[in-house]
């Protein structure tokens, strides 16, 4: 169903791929937008057990697109170091394909929000709880169930020539 990566020598193992997802703080969500044009938007997220959780406004292009078609892509770039002399880039990245759904249950929504607070503001859990209560009726939560995921790194990183 999903294509194999062409440059297999650059494929990262599952553990390294998950490490990159957990380490990064922003990624780019891709949806099928208006008139079937791709629409991408940078977002904050948290990864837990094969799923991504994203917060959003309740209305907008992203939400309309997910309601129309739940197939999404997501990517993060953990390293991006241009090497001018050799005309290359030393990179580490992750590409994801999955299915998105808008969370409606209170317990699911709270779990996603609390997980985001733990990732982005671990020193402010109490204040995060207050923020959750304050914005409860204004925030939308999206869950992406990952169907396929690949991590990739520049061959120089794979070979240890960082």
Low-confidence stretches: none
CATH architecture identity of the domain at 8-105 and 140-154? Roll
Our measurement of the CA-to-CA distance between the termini, rounded to an integer number of angstroms, reads 34 Å
Radius of gyration: 17 Å
Element pattern in H and E:
EHEEEEHEEHHEH
Name of the CATH class of the domain at 8-105 and 140-154: Mainly Beta
Provide a concise account of the structure shown.
30% of the residues lie in helices and 41% in strands.
Overview of this protein structure:
- Helix content is 30%, strand content 41%.
- It is an alpha+beta fold.
- It has a domain at 8-105 and 140-154: Pnp Oxidase, Chain A (Roll), CATH 2.30.110.10.
- Strands 1, 2, 3, 4, 5, 6, 7 and 8 form an eight-stranded antiparallel beta sheet that branches.
- The two termini are 34 Å apart.
- The model has no long low-confidence stretch (mean pLDDT 91).
